[in-house]
Request: fold
Amino acid sequence: MNWEDILFYVALITLPAGAVLMTTVFFLKRNAEKESGHDIRLMQAELKKQRQEYFLPNRVEAYQRAVLFMERIHPNSLIMRTINPGLPSAVYQTELLKTIREEYDHNVAQQLFISTGLWEMVKNSKEETIKIINIAGKQMSVTSMSTDLAAKIFEIVAEIGELPSDITVKALKEDLQKLF
Reply:
């Protein structure tokens, strides 16, 4: 046998073996990429689950605090909680507005866990409550007392019917139910 024959037989053996090796490498690499993609999807699902477990209690608390805020600034409960019969109406009006601002400032961070649309409703409800108080305040005379202002606010609230804060509370409750 000469060198040419030996090379021919070596090539005859190695070429198919090389083709099998290349095919094996190709399929192993492709399988590894699939598993890697699957692993990434599993990790992403696990991270999402962990985020939900971590943030869900914060979101529930944010909804609770937003509802509590709406209840606390509702004109009826606000007046019942803060009434001081000895105050002039202008001073009492200022106290009511100050109380609303303080309540809002205390709860402003809750917007991180509540949808933008719902937070806008919360803010609008606050603004509408302020408007009611200011409208009633403009109708007071210099000698009016806090009880006069409270009575006028109750009158305006009765004329309105369903207040924005009531509507917002319903929307918050509905949105919270979607989390479960």
Notes: The chain has six helices and no strands. Residues 3-178 form one domain. The mean pLDDT is 87. The chain has one domain: 3-178.
